[in-house]
Amino acid sequence: MYMQTSQPKNKIWEVIFASSAGTLIEWYDFYIFGSLSLIIAEKFFPASNPTLAYVSTLATFAVGFVVRPFGAIVFGRLGDLVGRKYTFLLTLLLMGGATFAIGLVPSYQQIGVFAPIIVLLLRLVQGLALGGEYGGAATYVAEHSPEHKRGYYTSFIQTTATLGLFLSLGVILITRLLMPADSFSAWGWRIPFLLSVFLVIMSYYIRIRLHESPLFTQLKAEGKVAKNPLKESFGNKENLKMVLLALFGATMGQGVVWYTGQFYALSFLQKTMNIEFVQSNVIIAIALLLGTPFFIVFGKLSDKIGRKKLMLTGMLIAAICYYPIYKVMDNTVNITEKTEIESKRTVETSTVKQADGTEAAKVIETRLYDDGTKIKETSISKAVAPSEIKKEVSLGLSNVILLIGLIFVQVLFVTLVYGPIAAFLVELFPTHIRYTSMSLPYHLGNGVIGGLLPTIATLLVFQTGNHFAGLIYPISIALVCFIIGLIFIKEKPVEKPENVEQVVKETV
């Protein structure tokens, strides 16, 4: 079932701004955790096994994605019963409160096992809130949009996930650059979490001034609001078929492409390639900034040529290109193809005091190569334990530019699949159960299947010792989704205004 609506042009931009601002803040809140995963692993998990701590952090991060479908059910039902506006006001406050609280949780050294338990519970709240946010924002914007511009207008909501990640990286980088590395590691990492409370208050003020969606208001006035959105969404055979098609033919492929091109790329730079913290975040941030406008480009294009073509093209190209892209990325830190400048090698030794009061020998060896690459290896030798070695790689300008380009290409894949998908999902379902029906497949595909990608991919790499084993997961999911979508998704005919009078009515 499709919908027709018309709004004054200034009104639709007010709706887009308010909806996008709130959704951006929610994504920012959600992704700070992933962006700081290496530091969080050190603070909230036992230090005895760094690898296990990192995997545990990724698993805690993934929990937020796993519960998103439950948030979609709870808040989707609420949105179809009570309204879009008040539901995504509630999700905004829950997300902001949980994020602020993570910034206050004491470390593992201070409260032991309670630290990861509290963080896990707060991630559950974040996941539930985000599960209700996206469907509400996308539905709200779509129900204010003229049909032939729905892909264009909803694409602004699609930018918010990437911009939220970009904002989280930006705030983290600024905080890190304003203080010594030791201070950031000790307490400065909490600042991005604590700042979220001010962003949430600002966004809440913007959203509270909005009116309810005109289509939902009309349904309510006519007494046609769903009495049981869950039953009507998933108990109806035809609607359930659309829910499953949305999941297996669109959102799960979109999910793995999104998380590979942005989050796994960051994880690969930092954990597999050992790229220095600031440099790795700068590389991702620049690539995201360059790629973000293409969400709108492809959203608008989907109004002209259809949603299916763009989404499936993005999945197929991504699946084909991931392996060669990541192989080239990994090769930038391959020292067998570099020449060391022997005269630039330095070794520094010192004695450091450990948390348990004992002393350990600390050795920092720095090597410089002809292409500008600098490798710093820090080893701490303890009397009663094996030496801990931390490797940090800083690349020269040419390799940094190459990595930005390679990740930018991955972001383009993301924009192809993600730019049109809000309009695609909205158009699948009738107004009275739209919030519930579209939220569940989106959060199963994007949240669970896509959100588990960093954890599953990292485990595959650790288990096999192969840098590229993690790519098996997104490539296989994207190909399966491409095939299902190609066979079963029926492209909605491109809608065009019937006459000039309609255009004037919808845009003036």
UniProtKB/TrEMBL annotation:
<dbReference type="InterPro" id="IPR020846">
    <property type="entry name" value="MFS_dom"/>
</dbReference>
<feature type="domain" description="Major facilitator superfamily (MFS) profile">
    <location>
        <begin position="15"/>
        <end position="493"/>
    </location>
</feature>
<feature type="transmembrane region" description="Helical">
    <location>
        <begin position="53"/>
        <end position="75"/>
    </location>
</feature>
<feature type="transmembrane region" description="Helical">
    <location>
        <begin position="468"/>
        <end position="489"/>
    </location>
</feature>
<dbReference type="InterPro" id="IPR036259">
    <property type="entry name" value="MFS_trans_sf"/>
</dbReference>
<keyword id="KW-1133">Transmembrane helix</keyword>
<keyword id="KW-0812">Transmembrane</keyword>
<keyword id="KW-0813">Transport</keyword>
<feature type="transmembrane region" description="Helical">
    <location>
        <begin position="87"/>
        <end position="105"/>
    </location>
</feature>
<feature type="transmembrane region" description="Helical">
    <location>
        <begin position="111"/>
        <end position="131"/>
    </location>
</feature>
<feature type="transmembrane region" description="Helical">
    <location>
        <begin position="187"/>
        <end position="206"/>
    </location>
</feature>
<keyword id="KW-0472">Membrane</keyword>
<feature type="transmembrane region" description="Helical">
    <location>
        <begin position="243"/>
        <end position="265"/>
    </location>
</feature>
<feature type="transmembrane region" description="Helical">
    <location>
        <begin position="310"/>
        <end position="326"/>
    </location>
</feature>
<feature type="transmembrane region" description="Helical">
    <location>
        <begin position="12"/>
        <end position="33"/>
    </location>
</feature>
<feature type="transmembrane region" description="Helical">
    <location>
        <begin position="440"/>
        <end position="462"/>
    </location>
</feature>
<dbReference type="Pfam" id="PF00083">
    <property type="entry name" value="Sugar_tr"/>
</dbReference>
<dbReference type="InterPro" id="IPR005828">
    <property type="entry name" value="MFS_sugar_transport-like"/>
</dbReference>
<dbReference type="GO" id="GO:0022857">
    <property type="term" value="F:transmembrane transporter activity"/>
</dbReference>
<keyword id="KW-1003">Cell membrane</keyword>
<feature type="transmembrane region" description="Helical">
    <location>
        <begin position="277"/>
        <end position="298"/>
    </location>
</feature>
<feature type="transmembrane region" description="Helical">
    <location>
        <begin position="152"/>
        <end position="175"/>
    </location>
</feature>
<dbReference type="InterPro" id="IPR005829">
    <property type="entry name" value="Sugar_transporter_CS"/>
</dbReference>
<dbReference type="GO" id="GO:0005886">
    <property type="term" value="C:plasma membrane"/>
</dbReference>
<feature type="transmembrane region" description="Helical">
    <location>
        <begin position="400"/>
        <end position="428"/>
    </location>
</feature>
<protein>
    <submittedName>
        <fullName>MFS transporter</fullName>
    </submittedName>
</protein>
